[in-house]
Amino acid sequence: MKILIFPDTEQAEAFVALEVAALVSKRPTAVLGLATGGTMERVYGRLVACALDQDIAFTQVRSFNLDEYWGVAPDHPASYTHYMNKRLFQPLDMHQALTQLPNGIAADADVEAARYEAAISAVGGIDLQLLGLGANGHIGFNEPTSSLGSRTRIKTLTQTTRNANRRYFDKAQDVPRFALTMGIATILEARAVLLLATGAAKSRAAAQMIEGPLSAFCPASALQLHPKATIVLDADAARELTLRDYFEEVHPHGARASVPPAHRT
Ligand code: F6R
User: Fold this and answer.
1) Of 185, 203, 246, nearest in space to 1 by CA
2) Catalytic site residue from 65, 85, 103, 136
């Protein structure tokens, strides 16, 4: 795992936005795995600004979102489809046919989950998977004790997650109890993953993800198995890391590591 700790939230968000922009600039047909949530709102704002400013075309980019609420129609204002259309797909003129989310109102959740997995495989897999982090250690909607071998499926949301997403719905009872989500194994198959966690509320989960045991109790700890996982934190999210000094020595202020030439001794 590459752990990058930025002094403030804005720098951490800017790093993530620039990584995505750089990938698409180099490979206009990239396949992106996308996340939603509060953390990504500002990242997408920066990404849109950067892409428009630098004339980076997203029109051939394919994307697969991590998750969608079960029972919530794509045109519902709290759906993740609506979120993505508003914040990324429409501002960047991305093609509807190339941007996919699980269908939250499919006739059969299992059939839809299998279709989604097949659609990802059909395009050759995901080049870069963006992730946020739940305060309980979830990635996607893989709640604690999700199998590390899980694939896309329907999951019951924990009360912690439902509380965290309460703000997107009019009434507490409107917050869905279920979501379709990529599984941990689906996420681990992406060729690279980039997780952003900001704020003190994420510090415990961040420490468990990076330094804790590999455990289904902290689903994000599965990223320890990924050969190309970059974890981006701001100072608040990093504050419970035991090895924080080491991470900051290797990547001061989130900078790339510089390895000096070898000296024979
Ligand atoms: C969203 C998702 C979730 C969020 C996580 C953090 O598509 O998959 O895992 O990334 O719940 O959410 P925020 O950023 O709202 O704290």
Assistant:
1) 246
2) 136
